Amino acid sequence: MTTSHYIAGRWVEGQGSDCISVNDPALGQPFAELKAASVAQVDQAVTAARGALPAWKNTSASERAAYLRGFAEQLGQRREALITLQMRNNGKPRHEAEIDLEDAIATFGYYAELAEQLPSKNRDVPLAAPGFSARTRLEPVGVVGLIVPWNFPLVTSAWKLAPALAAGCTVVLKPSEVTPLIEQAYGQIADALGLPPGVLNIVNGKAETGAALSNHNGLDKLSFTGSNSVGSQVMRSASAQCRPVTLELGGKSAIVVFDDCDVGQAVEWIVAGITWNAGQMCSATSRLLVQDGIADALLPRLQAALEQLRVGNPLTEEVDMGPLTSQAQWLKVAGYFATAREEGLQCLAGGKALDREGWFVSPTLYADVPKDSRLWTEEIFGPVLCARRFATEEQAIAEANDSRFGLVATVCSADLERAERVADALEVGHVWINSVQAVFVETSWGGTKGSGIGRELGPWGLSAYQSVKHVTRCLG
């Protein structure tokens, strides 16, 4: 697979120095290899996007909507191949891979509708002062770079690509080097739909490719999803040119369980929040705050539920949880298991890598974890849950908010008035009440504190790729 880069409407061979090995994490073995794009090819992609911008931004909203609906339809036509690739390259169980695909399809469909509802380019603005008229224009921000992570390929790129195209922007997409294959579908779809050359460009590579894109002076905006360490580098690149950024970064989210909860239902919500995608989610609710009155009943049930999960290869077994996606992540999580032993944490379930081929770890639960433990404060990005008890609502809110992150949270309580009150008090971007982490394209996604800048999804996702211009005219 050498022609893995889509630039100016053509598939081209990588000319970079890096070689990307694509692995099956359930086997711990590579199944594909491709050459990274060179810095010169990144420049070619940006140049192509810049050249395509004038015509694309002046297409009608209905025409852009038609292309977006085409993306949704074409994704559906590739359903089985894309689901299988998510399972093979990410290690996702089939039901998770299916939801990923449906999420991407829904995103393109939603932004097709939003594109059609865009107001005319000019909107009159009433002024209090006589003798002047004013109008507002919403314009595409321009050429945007999109850098997406490995934990939700296809999905995160849809969250960025669909609103960017709807707004009239042209894009350069850089997938993760861990999961570079599935985003090739977007280039194939662009070909099938006859999307004008240069509107969508895809370059694959490692850090060198990402740096070349984020540092390129031909971009008007950069949208990045990934780790805080890389996000800070992206922000420094943007600051050198005073370029706007959207950053969706890490999390260390809390799930708060009050003692009026049904224990079985609470266990279901907790398990889903920490084991979906093997815990490799910035939104993983990895800090469990459980009220004293229910803790003794809940923790043993939770322990049993985690131990009963079926962990294995999603391509050959019916499983609840697959492997970690990369060896690097497997080593990182194993390192936290070692830290837990050094700190003397009480392990109720798991706490170890599994003795089998592939990058598997056990779903893990630690109880009564101190607030100064590294496992309580740091994002692990694996199926590792840390629990603490609380007495009062005020204590639960304070401990949930005591984090440098602020992405999401979950509140579990039969008292809906209290649940709504606690949700309002939590310093995060999204809160679920008595629910698994259901994410809808109509709602916003993004966080506070160290979890990032800006919002994706909903109308906020579209406005992230729009620029506001006012024109004021003297009538005298």
Textual characterization of the structure:
This protein has 15 helices and 22 strands. Helix content is 40%, strand content 21%. The longest helix has 23 residues, at 94-116. It starts with a strand and ends with a strand. It has 476 residues and is α/β, with parallel strands linked by helices. The protein has helices at 39-57, 61-77, 79-90, 94-116, 155-167, 184-193, 207-214, 228-240, 263-275, 292-307, 327-343, 374-377, 393-401, 416-425, 458-463; strands spanning 5-7, 10-12, 19-24, 29-35, 123-124, 132-140, 143-147, 170-174, 200-202, 221-225, 245-248, 254-257, 287-291, 346-349, 364-367, 384-390, 405-406, 408-412, 430-433, 448-449, 452-453, 466-474. The strands form six sheets. Strands 14-15-16-13-12-18-19 form a seven-stranded mixed β-sheet, sandwiched between helices. It is globular and about 75 Å long.
In short:
With 476 residues, the protein is an alpha/beta fold. The chain is built from 15 helices and 22 strands.
Strand order of the biggest β-sheet: 14-15-16-13-12-18-19
Number of strands: 22
Helix content: 25-40%
Overall pLDDT confidence: 96
Distance between the first and last residues' Cα = 65 Å
Tell me the number of helical segments per DSSP (H or I, 4 or more residues long): 15
Query: What characterizes the major β-sheet?
Result: 7 strands, mixed
The low-pLDDT segments are none
What is the overall shape?
A: globular
Strand content: 15-25%
> What gyration radius follows from the Cα positions, in whole Å?
23 Å
Structural class of the secondary elements?
alpha/beta
